[in-house]
Amino acid sequence: MTTHPKSTHLSTDNTGSSLQTVFAVVTGASQGIGRSIALEFARRGIVPILIARDEKNLAAVASEILDTYKLEPVTMSADLSDRASVNHLLAQFEAFPGRIEYAVNNAGFGDTTPFIDCDPSSLDEMIELNVRAVVRITHFFSNRFRSQGSGRVMNVSSTAAFQPTPYFALYGSSKSMILNLDQAINEELLGTGVHVCTLCPGPTATPFHARASSDRSLLSRITMLDADKVAIAGVSGMLRGKRLIVPGLTNQLLRLLVRLSPSAVLPKVSAILMRPRES
Ligand SMILES: NC(=O)c1ccc[n+]([C@@H]2O[C@H](COP(=O)([O-])OP(=O)(O)OC[C@H]3O[C@@H](n4cnc5c(N)ncnc54)[C@H](OP(=O)(O)O)[C@@H]3O)[C@@H](O)[C@H]2O)c1
Fold first, then answer.
1. N or C: which end of the chain has fewer CB within 10 A?
2. Are 58 and 30 in contact, with CB atoms under 8 Å apart?
3. Which of 40, 109, 126 has most ligand 1 atoms within 8 Å of CB, for mutation?
4. Would you say the CB of residue 156 lies under 6 angstroms from ligand 1?
5. How far is the CA of 19 from the centre of ligand 1 (A)?
6. Ligand 1 centre and the CA of 18: distance in Å?
7. 263: burial class by Cβ within 10 Å (0-12, 13-18, 19+)?
């Protein structure tokens, strides 16, 4: 794990009453939506702590932020699908002296391989990254934020969380679990100064789809959004205290449609939309 805990920027705290450096943890910040979220925090004067596995990509995002916003982010290389690595990361945060006000669990991956054909080790990896790491990091920062009297967690779920998703079965289920967890613990945390919200993007143009082979689905082709737009909606929704953020009108309409549809129909419609097509 590489850490560069050096920052030069001062920004106002949540109350705006005093000047101090405020940090935001962003997992999966080396590319895609996470990179855009980190840039959006930096644009607002909040210093991102960038986490992912690829140190070279992390360094590239860090220098982009330094060049554009004159902020020096912290970078931490960690494999969040590995339990020892997650524990090590949390120990690093235990000792981190700066004021962290925001934590975004964004790292995740999908796979459109039919469930029965998935490699068991890939199923385990998805549960470790999309669920277990998110649970542990959310638990850690909820406690830290409660002790300091303020802080916000945002977990990146997906519109796949809203219904069963054939051809994305475990992925959609992992995202449903996170959505339900967030909405439940946010209620438990009322009055503590800690706020937990969920960002549910629809298909977004990032390298995610190459790994998941999901860019050939009908739904992706119809509703693809830009990562910067998703990040801006996420960060501004989080700062405004929204509980659930669904970027894009089409995604919001699709969610409404899901809520109004009979539950028996949903997996069937979802299968039509999600089934990978020949390019
Ligand atoms: N793109 C979409 O259409 C879409 C739609 C809805 C929701 N989402 C969700 O949005 C989040 C971000 O997706 P994205 O589209 O930005 O994906 P992406 O472009 O593939 O980026 C994923 C990020 O996670 C990091 N990561 C992957 N595995 C990791 C691991 N084991 N440990 C630590 N970091 C890891 C990657 O960096 P390294 O490879 O260097 O580790 C990268 O920074 C995910 O949770 C995804 O499920 C995406």
1. C
2. yes
3. 109
4. yes
5. 33
6. 35
7. exposed
Q: Where are the domains of the chain?
A: 11-274
pTM of the predicted model over 0.90: yes
Both tokens of residue 178?
């996170």
pLDDT values of the chain reduced to their tens digit, one per residue, 279 residues: 444 433 333 333 444 444 689 999 999 999 999 999 999 999 999 999 999 999 999 999 999 999 999 999 999 999 999 999 999 999 999 999 999 999 999 999 999 999 999 999 999 999 999 999 999 999 999 999 999 999 999 999 999 999 999 999 999 999 999 999 999 999 999 999 999 999 999 999 999 988 887 766 677 777 789 999 999 999 999 999 999 999 999 999 999 999 999 999 999 988 888 877 665
Contacts (Cβ under 8 Å, ≥6 apart) of 212: 109, 110, 111, 112, 168, 171
Is residue 206 in contact with ligand 1, taking CB distance under 6 Å? yes
Ligand 1 atom nearest the C-alpha of 205 is: 1
Quick check: CB of 33 below 6 Å from ligand 1?
Answer: yes
* Homologous superfamily of domain range 11-274: NAD(P)-binding Rossmann-like Domain (3.40.50.720)
**Spacing of C-alpha 17 from chain mean position:** 29
State which amino acid sits at residue 155. Answer: N
Q: What is the CA radius of gyration of the chain?
A: 18
